């Protein structure tokens, strides 16, 4: 095996600063939003209330889109959303920096199929915490969308793949409506916070050692995880991947599940799958 092929086979052994071919734009984006976020926090440490509220609303909509639409609906089919609701949240999830649905779902389905093996490129078991947290985003080979989610490579879903760059540019710049303060907070600062809130699902919630796989529940992550409501109950999810409900016990707050329950009552969600087991 050549050195290049070996690097792709075990990409966590690459230097942390070296993106793989085809992912240099992702690496540049990650570096860019972190640099802009740092500048923004220094220049505008205490933003206006209107900027704070707008930032939070964008994050909350993107977080619901990630957990309800991308994860529970599109990846696992545990709930069927009304098309208008589905595409509304696809936009906000992309606006929150999570990428197009085909790419996200392909990575996630591969993660479940290959969990904790060398083919699970986002596992800390192979590359450690920082590999699972963020490095895999720019150092792993893209997931094969036609293999893992062919249904999301056709029709209107294909539009979202083409629109991804435009939505990200909009996400970065839309805050200019509130001036430079809004540019930084509604743009890069929000995107960095949302990014790491979601990345903790791959890293922190996969550091468990008590079970047959590395998944674990992390209760204190929930209040901080504005970009992924309920995803901190990750052990529950691995035990019950065919369940729309992630918080299995009464004290396990799962905002995504409450939202699905409300949508079902309103006739905007159907085919909602409940957990088969309450044991995490």
Write the layout of secondary structure elements.
Elements: H1 3-9, H2 24-43, H3 49-75, E1 80-81, H4 83-95, H5 101-113, H6 124-127, H7 129-139, H8 145-148, H9 155-173, H10 180-202, H11 234-239, H12 255-265, E2 269-270
Antiparallel strand pairs: 1-2
Helix pairs in contact: 2-10, 3-4, 3-5, 3-10, 4-9
Short description:
With 280 residues, the chain is mainly alpha-helical. 56% of the residues lie in helices and 1% in strands. The chain has twelve helices and two strands; from the N terminus they run H-H-H-E-H-H-H-H-H-H-H-H-H-E.
Number of domains: 1
Determine the strand fraction and express it as a percent band: under 5%
Question: Helix/strand/pairing class, anyone?
Answer: mainly alpha
Main β-sheet, spatial strand arrangement: 1-2
Radius of gyration: 18 Å
| Euclidean distance between termini CA atoms | 41 Å
- Percent of residues in helices: 55-70%
Helix segment tally? 12
Q: Helices and strands, in N-to-C order?
A: HHHEHHHHHHHHHE
Identify the quaternary structure here: single chain
Instruction: Identify low-pLDDT runs.
Output: 1-6
On the 0 to 100 scale, the average pLDDT is 93
Number of strands: 2
Q: Largest beta sheet, briefly?
A: 2 strands, antiparallel
What does the overall shape look like?
globular
């Amino acid at each position: 095996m050549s050195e290049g092929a070996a690097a792709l086979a075990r990409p966590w052994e690459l230097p942390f600063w070296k993106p793989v071919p085809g992912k240099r734009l992702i690496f540049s984006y990650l570096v860019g939003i972190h640099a802009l976020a740092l500048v923004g926090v220094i220049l505008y440490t205490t933003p206006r209330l209107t900027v704070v509220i707008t930032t939070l609303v964008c994050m909350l909509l993107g977080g619901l889109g990630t957990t309800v639409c991308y994860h529970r609906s599109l990846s696992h089919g545990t709930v069927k959303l009304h098309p208008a609701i589905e595409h509304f949240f696809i936009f906000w999830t992309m606006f929150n920096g999570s990428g197009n649905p085909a790419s996200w779902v392909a990575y996630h389905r591969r993660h479940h199929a290959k969990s904790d093996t060398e083919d699970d490129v986002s596992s800390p078991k192979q590359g450690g915490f920082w590999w699972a947290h963020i490095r895999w985003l720019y150092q792993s080979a893209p997931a094969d969308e036609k293999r893992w989610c062919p249904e999301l490579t056709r029709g209107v879903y294909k539009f979202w793949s083409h629109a991804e760059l435009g939505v990200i540019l909009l996400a970065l710049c839309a805050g200019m409506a509130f001036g430079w303060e809004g540019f930084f907070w509604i743009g890069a600062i929000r995107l960095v916070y949302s990014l790491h809130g979601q990345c903790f699902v791959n890293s922190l919630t996969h550091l468990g050692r008590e079970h047959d796989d590395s998944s674990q529940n992390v209760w204190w992550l929930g209040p901080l995880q504005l970009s992924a409501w309920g995803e901190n109950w990750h052990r529950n999810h691995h035990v019950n991947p065919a369940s729309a409900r992630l918080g299995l016990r009464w004290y396990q707050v799962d905002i995504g599940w409450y939202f699905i329950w409300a949508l079902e009552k309103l006739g905007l969600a159907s085919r909602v799958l409940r957990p088969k087991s309450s044991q995490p």
